[in-house]
Structure formats: C-alpha cells, structure tokens
Amino acid sequence: MSAPIYLDHNASTPIDSDVLETVIRVSRDSYANPSSVEHSDGSAAARIVETAREQVAAHVNCKETELIFTAGSTEANNLAILGAFPKLQDAGRSHLITSKIEHPSVLACFDHLEGHGARVTRLGVDEGGQISLDELAEALTDETGLVSIMAANNETGVLQPILQAGQLAEDAGALFHTDFSQASALVPLDLKDSPIHLASFSGHKAYGPKGSGPLPLDPKTTGEPGPSVVWGGQEKGLRAGTLNTPGIAGLGHAFELISKNIEPDRERIAVLRDQLETELKETLQVHVNGNPEARLPNTISITIDGVVPQALMQKLRNDLCFSASSACATEHVETSHVLLTMFGDTPRARNAFRLGLGRQTRREDISRVADLFGQAAGELLLLRSA
C-alpha cells in the first residue's frame, strides 16, 4: 500500500533532506556546549550557532545581533509579548491590540496580560479573513504599547496587511509584532527599515527541524524584552537554556535554502493549488474560505456542503493527511475560532477543513486527491440522504 499523500504542511513541513544531514552531522560531531567557549570544542559549537545566526539574518535582512534563538514561535510569541509588556506598562502604554484569529499562543498571552493590568482590543475580520486597517487606526491611542497581527493565518492561509498595520502602529508610537510562522517558507520578508519590530518563526514550518525558531527584535525600538526564564544567561540573557546547536544549525540551513527556493516554490505550488481547487469544484459543492487574492500559495480552506470533516478524515485516513482545523486543537472537536470569527456558528464554519501543499507535492498527486475527495464525499452524502 502506498504512503498517504501529505497535505498538512501548515501543521508541519517535512525536514529537507540536506537540512537533516546538517542536523545529524552537528549532533554527531559538535556536541560541546556552545557556551563553553574557553575550550576549542565549545568555541567550534559557538561558531556553528553564529553561522546559523548569519544565515537567518541574511534571509530576513536584519542584523545578526538582533536575533534570539528560541524553541519555536510559541516561545517566541511569549517572549516578545509578555517580555515587552512590563516596560510598556511602566511607560503608560498598557493598551494592547491583536486580532481574534491569532494563533492560540498569541491569544493566551493577551488573555494573561489582561489579568495583569493590560487593556486589550481584539480586532475582528471580514468574511475574507482580513482585519480592517481603518478599525486598527481607530483603535490606536497614545496609550497603545503593542500591536500583534499574524502575517498569514495557519487555518485559512489568508495574508494580513502587516506592513501597513505595522506602519500605523509605529506612527502611533507602538511596537508591532507579527507571528510570521506560517508565511516563513513562502513569503519574502525584509526587516530592514520596516515597521516590524518583533517577528516569530518556527523551523518546522520552513522545512527545518522542530524545536528551533528565531525571534528578530529591533533593539533600537523595542529596547530589550524581559527574560523568558530568570535564571541562566544564554542568548543575551533573554532566553535561558543550553542552545540546541544541531537544531539551530538546521534552522540556519533551512532559511538559507528558502532564500534560494522561495520564488520557484511559490510559483509551482500555487499552480498545483489552483489545479486542485478547480478539480474539486468540478465534482463537489465547495466553498473556499478566505480572500482568494490575499492568501498563501499552498493553502486551501474548504467547506463541502453536507460533509463533516471528521468523517471525511476518517474515511481517507489511509490515503490523505490533512487537517480539520488548527493542528494545535485537534484533540478537541470544536469549531475553529478563526472560522467562527469569519462566518459565525454556521455549517460553513463547523465543516471547514484545510489542505496544505508543499515542496513534496507532485503534479500527479492532484487528480488523485480530487478523485479521493469526490468519492469519499459522495459516499458520505449518500449515507446522509439514506
């Protein structure tokens, strides 16, 4: 039996084979602690970390000194948002703005801060899944300290106008943070002279290893956020813990490969996504969720009239890998907060699922995927009408 076709790249990308070789080599040969620079092996490990810092910084066009390595975007989101707040609060800027469709790790940070003196504004989105820049502009005050808007939604792939939003925040004297995780491998980012002051990434969303991710921060604007862990002095005292040298090396290599491959990847994957949408619409009553003009080239959020995604996933589990909602919430069968914000408590929101294509998706996979969905959905609709 052939392996299932993998369409869950939004949840996690497969590690690139060359990146995996880097992780294995560094794990085997460079096991010294990179903080032990007083001896040669420790210094060699530290150089590996700094090479990765150079690779990531080159990709996003920021200074190497502006990069902190974390365990991934969930930790980076926490460090950026929670770490920035105490100084903002001391400066009289305890008003914070985010959107209702952010990743749960971002929403949890704002919920926490709301219980510690923050006033939080949560922006809604339209049916296309985008925030309103006018609504953001109206929400900004001279007490606003931080705005956090994701670059691309992990469930719909919808892109947010982060440069315009960041400029509005900066003009109001506020910091701007974006969770760039979902966009990492498919959307170019140039942080030089941009209004983005903090950005979160995860290696496993960018064909790199799990457990690694950079956090670029602009110290000229942000100062330095408070540490995520009080004890320990690694990563400029902001992120304690022994550095994951193999993961960081793999992360740097992965970002270097993105710099080389991003344009051909975007073009090829977008063609496959459009082909899949067309073939699905030929046989099924489908709704594509999200702004079709502003979304990632690999993502389709779709609702099939009358078909429950969990039943579809069960029927296709040996043939396809895809997600009914955000992978972080699959233990609970409940409607996505993103789709609820877009459509309310409706069948379109309840029955949405996500297809995420990637580098390994082949042209010959597309018709097979469409045929499998058509057959499985047809069988479920027949059972429902019986």
TrEMBL record:
Which cofactors are required for activity?
pyridoxal 5'-phosphate
Q: What is its EC number?
A: 2.8.1.7
Q: Where is the Aminotransferase class V domain?
A: 5-369
Could you say which enzyme class this protein belongs to?
Answer: transferase
Which GO molecular function, any one, fits this protein according to its record? Answer: metal ion binding
Q: Which Gene3D superfamilies match?
A: Aspartate Aminotransferase, domain 1 (3.90.1150.10), Type I PLP-dependent aspartate aminotransferase-like (Major domain) (3.40.640.10)
The record's section on InterPro entries has:
Aminotrans_V_dom (IPR000192), Aminotrans_V_PyrdxlP_BS (IPR020578), Cysteine_dSase (IPR016454), PyrdxlP-dep_Trfase (IPR015424), PyrdxlP-dep_Trfase_major (IPR015421), PyrdxlP-dep_Trfase_small (IPR015422)
| Listed Pfam families | Aminotran_5
Per UniProt, which keywords does this protein have? Iron, Iron-sulfur, Metal-binding, Pyridoxal phosphate, Transferase
Bilayer-crossing residues are none
Region span, Disordered: 205-224
Q: Which reaction does it catalyse?
A: (sulfur carrier)-H + L-cysteine = (sulfur carrier)-SH + L-alanine
- Member of which family? Belongs to the class-V pyridoxal-phosphate-dependent aminotransferase family. NifS/IscS subfamily.
Task performed by this protein? Catalyzes the removal of elemental sulfur atoms from cysteine to produce alanine. Seems to participate in the biosynthesis of the nitrogenase metalloclusters by providing the inorganic sulfur required for the Fe-S core formation.
Q: Which PANTHER family match?
A: CYSTEINE DESULFURASE, CYSTEINE DESULFURYLASE FAMILY MEMBER
| Record-given protein name | Cysteine desulfurase
